[in-house]
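Neurotransmitter-gated ion-channel ligand binding domain protein structure dump, as promised
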Amino acid sequence: MELNTRNVLVLYNKTYSEHQTALEKAIFSNYVNTRRPVRNISTPVEVSVHFHIVHVSVNQEEQTMTVHGHLYMTWIDEFLGWDVNEFNGIRMTRCSKWRVWQPKIKVANSVAGIYSAFEISSHAHVLVQSLGKEQAKVEMYPTFSIKVGCNFDYSDYPKDVNSCTLAVFAKQRMSEVRLKNYYNYPPTLSIGWGSQSDKRVISDFEILNVSHYITYYKHGNSSTLEPITANELAVSWSILHTTVYFRRHSVMFGISMLLPCLVSAAFNILPFFIPSLNYSVYTLLSNVIIQHDNVVQHGFVGAAHPTGSDGAAANTVYTSPCNSWYRQSYIKLS
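structure tokens r here:
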């Protein structure tokens, strides 16, 4: 009985494999992957795009942001349809990326230099779903690692809130390819798994929100006004913008600034309550500690903090009043 069951399973799997092979031969035998998948050449291909972000890295010194994730794209191909009844009810198949037509997606504001050609992977999963004999739905989701330039302002450090935008576009004009937001869904963010699925803090920053919008580039200018006429579409490109909003996550900043201030002030005042025999020794010790604290705060610590829009160290607003306070206490008590 077991032998007969195994034979049936082998026969079933072989039959399904044969149907898949026959399906691929049927839909790709006369298919041209460089031809736009529309029968009416005046009709643009509408490509719906969705960003799924799995990691964000912010470099505050270089003023850059690197985003990693999956770029989901889908469109209708009018040359890949088939009758599911002719292929044992198969409605969906997989294929290599190079076998189907695909939009040429580029990053508009990349700072990766010569490596920008590899920011969107050339390898991807491709799903083809039949919508009848005349057309099929193509889904593709390559991985990406995009590095873009930003304009950060740390004047409100350590409570600064910033944003950075990455922009992608199709190299084909809008008369050929038009980018759209996938059902107007905002980009999804998944930087943690399981119990950390709600994670939003990465290194020194907390991600607040991720949004998207589309602009249209024409004659050197970008606008949110969508081109309508054929002449406008022939000289326009659609650009999809994804913006990441984040704020600094610095829990220990207050303690790290206040504690040296209090310790230095204590050593500054302490010699005035000590017998005169040790006065000079403790005064010298106090001055040494204060000067050392100044060097550390304005040197090493200050250099590690970002600068504000005016070019000054953003932590000056905290360290300057602190230094002035214990210096004044020294002058008054002396």
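The longest strand covers residues 45-59.
lmk if u need the other ones
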